[in-house]
Amino acid sequence: MAITTPKSAFWKGVRDGAPFLLVSGPFGLLFGVLAAEAGLIVPEALTFSLAVFAGSAQFTALQLMQENAPILIVLISALAVNLRVAMYSASLTPYLGSAPLWQRAIAAYFTVDQSYALSIVQFETEPEMTVPERMAYFFGTNGLVAPGWMIATFTGAMIGAQVPNSWGLDFVLPLAFLAMIGPMLRTPAHVVACFVAVATALPAAALPYNLGLIVAGLAGMMAGAQTEVWLENRLRRSQEETAQ
């Protein structure tokens, strides 16, 4: 169905984002359960999700809080996990940067893995979309996922430890990231960054307070940036040699 108005763009975003409920639902349910097990009451768990709205950062912070890690380490680790969102924002700026400030502020809150992955593909596929249509589509991708995440968190916190371990909800987290990260590895720099981060994370897991995650993330970003610089220099030299 062709996008002709912001309204049609919004509903296309809703349809495209709907399958992610299969991931965000169990994911939010698991967070609610773990939050309850960690001693958070239902309003606290729901406020956590409303304030942060970033599953991986929430799980990281919750785990470190249970380990009685210093508050500074909790904050740094949660921020490190969410550094990718800064890159998402930079990537979306050419498409959404001219939207009104209040819309961009709300979009910043709703910038998560699925909204970015769906939106960047949509915007690259249909470059003729207007800014209002792009923004409508972006918000549509969260039309079901965001409330679904909050409802799942509330439900998980309500039922708490009653969820049996046999359900295997903790396996949703790696599955979700594998499903979203795989299609994003589109350039050599992305691949290098991914594998360097993985290779670093394994030995760095021995570091306390989840600091290995920060070290691995920094190593991956530096490796990816260096790879991109090297490839650009190589391309430029090749063009210069061809011109001669």
TrEMBL record:
Transmembrane segments: 71-90, 135-159, 165-182, 189-207
GO cellular component, one term: plasma membrane
One GO-annotated biological process of the protein: L-valine transmembrane transport
Cellular localization per UniProt: Cell membrane
UniProt keyword Transmembrane present: yes
Record membrane topology: Multi-pass membrane protein
Keywords in alphabetical order: Cell membrane, Membrane, Transmembrane, Transmembrane helix, Transport
Domain of life of the source: Bacteria
Cross-referenced Pfam families: AzlC (PF03591)
Keyword Transmembrane helix: yes
Family assignment from sequence similarity: Belongs to the AzlC family.
Protein name as it appears in the record: Putative branched-chain amino acid permease (Azaleucine resistance)
Organism: Phaeobacter gallaeciensis
